[in-house]
Backbone:
């Protein structure tokens, strides 16, 4: 089990839009890139990218005369970029490996702190950590009140696109602008969102937030979530395409009228393994929460490149005794599939007024209550800054939120990775159960 990574601070700078934790391993093509030129490529391309994502250089505020928080950019605003260097470059191989458990806090030094106070909060913060002779890591901190996972990944991929063009041309400055693919160009038009429920969802959520910690709560300070236990570790588990097909066949043999998506199968199997590994009491009800992208489900549909938050929470539940039983996988996938099916049948906003943020913190880290972070549809392992695709991608925040991460597999082939943080003995039990279900030991 690896120790927390140690880094020394090289520079903290602010990168503005140009006027007018992911690990990348050094390869033969990138070994000729000096540290100075690598940082120059990343800084310049970031400035060019922010020209398309100007709000991300701004700040979130909540003026007393405004009924809602405001994301604003004024000239001079910029994104905080930290440049650091690992004091143990050889630790790169351990931190970027999927085959070993890593101490849960090992990635914390690789992720920047997002500036926030009761009155103001930054949209994003970025960090580049160098592992001399081995590679580098890009750490991101994003404010979830401003952008969802799809928008976050779109920004990172846009930055990568701009940087790769510089590397391809061998220059750190490619002019005052960069052209983005249509799929990455952010759409800022808020009129495309229609609340057809007639319930006033915005008012419901704002009132819930303001009443959460006392009357008229307008604090923008980021939640200070509980730190992970000292004996917790991180692990990543891969579902190959063959594994997913095995799960599908196992379910089809018992139930034939379910829509078995890759997401529902992966989450269901993970849910069952977690309930067993944590030895959740049979008499309890277990919950699986996840976010659903509403863009394509709204009426009319919202363009995929819509900037901001366009998700809602969905909750599936089942009795622990059923999840622990012989048909646990079928029970889990049925619960998840039915929850998603309900959105398509009743409309994605149906029941959205019943999801309250104040209840979320109460269940973080509770055995039997699970949630997801990310999506395999984001294709994060396709991201290329010009030096190849990532060696590893970690969602660092799951050690505090208690969620398990979901992404595409770095090995490609339609596979999926799930990452989680558990106490070491629970992780070992989970790993055994995970392998056993696919006939591995």
Residues:
């Amino acid at each position: 089990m690896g120790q927390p990574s140690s880094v020394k601070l090289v520079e903290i700078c602010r990168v503005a839009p140009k006027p007018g934790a992911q690990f990348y391993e050094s390869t033969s093509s990138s070994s000729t890139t000096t540290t100075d030129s690598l940082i120059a490529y990343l800084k310049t391309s970031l400035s060019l990218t922010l020209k398309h994502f100007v709000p991300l250089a701004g700040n979130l505020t909540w003026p007393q005369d405004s009924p809602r928080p405001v994301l604003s950019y004024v000239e001079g605003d910029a994104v905080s970029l930290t440049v650091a260097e690992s004091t143990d470059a050889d630790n790169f191989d351990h931190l970027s490996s999927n085959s070993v458990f890593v101490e849960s806090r090992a990635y914390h030094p690789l992720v920047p702190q997002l500036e926030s106070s009761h009155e103001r909060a930054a949209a994003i913060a970025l960090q580049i950590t160098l592992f001399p002779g081995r590679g580098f890591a890009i750490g991101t901190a994003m404010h979830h009140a401003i952008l969802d996972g799809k928008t976050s990944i779109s920004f990172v991929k846009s930055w990568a696109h701009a940087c790769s063009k510089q590397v391809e041309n061998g220059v750190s400055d490619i002019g005052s602008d960069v052209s983005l693919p249509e799929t990455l160009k952010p759409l800022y038009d808020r009129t495309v969102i229609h609340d057809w429920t007639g319930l006033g969802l915005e008012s419901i959520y704002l009132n819930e937030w303001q009443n959460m910690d006392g009357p008229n709560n307008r604090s923008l300070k980021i939640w200070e979530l509980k730190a992970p236990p000292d004996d917790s570790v991180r692990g990543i588990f891969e579902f190959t395409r063959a594994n997913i097909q095995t799960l599908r066949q196992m379910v089809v043999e018992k139930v034939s009228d379910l829509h078995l998506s890759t997401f529902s199968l992966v989450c269901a199997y993970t849910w069952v393994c977690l309930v067993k590994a944590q030895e959740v009491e049979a008499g309890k009800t277990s919950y699986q929460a996840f976010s659903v992208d509403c863009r394509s489900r709204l009426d009319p549909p919202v363009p995929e490149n819509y900037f901001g938050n366009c998700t809602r929470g969905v909750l599936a539940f089942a009795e622990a005794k059923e999840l622990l039983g012989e048909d646990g996988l079928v029970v889990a996938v049925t619960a998840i599939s039915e929850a998603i099916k309900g959105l398509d049948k009743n409309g994605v906003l149906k029941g959205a007024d019943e999801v309250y943020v104040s209840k979320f913190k109460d269940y973080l880290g509770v055995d039997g209550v699970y949630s997801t972070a990310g999506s395999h549809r984001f294709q994060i392992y396709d991201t290329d800054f010009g030096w190849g695709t990532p060696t590893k991608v970690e969602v660092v925040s799951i050690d505090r939120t208690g969620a398990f991460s979901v992404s595409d597999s770095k090995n490609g082939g339609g596979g999926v990775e799930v990452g989680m943080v558990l106490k070491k003995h629970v992780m070992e039990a989970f790993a055994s159960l995970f392998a056993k279900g696919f006939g591995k030991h």
Summary: The radius of gyration is 22 Å. Residues 149-169 form the longest helix (21 residues). The chain is about 25% helix and 20% strand.
